[in-house]
Amino acid sequence: MRRCYLLVLTVVVLVVLPSACLCQEAYVYMRECMLSESGVIYYLWACAGPDTVNDLEVCLFDAAGNELEFVSISAPPCWYPHASGNCGYWYTEENPILPGECLNEFDFKVPLGNCTILVRWMFTFNGVPVTDWTDTWFNCGITGAEQQTWGSIKSLYK
To answer: Residue 49 in contact with residue 131, Cβ under 8 Å?
Structure first.
């Protein structure tokens, strides 16, 4: 009988707890970025933390602190994006981010030359804030490549 309880406890710890503890704190961070002909595209992770989230609000600022307008914005399935000026949001009724879960299909584009931006974000659920406004710096980190021959590059690793 004791082995049975131990087995059940082990299964609960290994199966239930990891899924419940995936994300204990709410956050938004840059998954990746890409330079396109018409701007810099930022791809985001949004993690709900301990609360259910159905709205992500974002305002953008350039490295000097000036408002930065969205070029475009897109959303995961069943989420609806909207941008006006330097602020935008993603909203859903059908597919909220549940406590401890993350969603990674949010993205937006800003004008070229904005590889370091300040993203001010907040989560809400049915219009009620579940986080405070939080500032996060995104740095696309696009760097130039040095002109070298293949032979000179190979010689570095001999």
So the answer is: yes
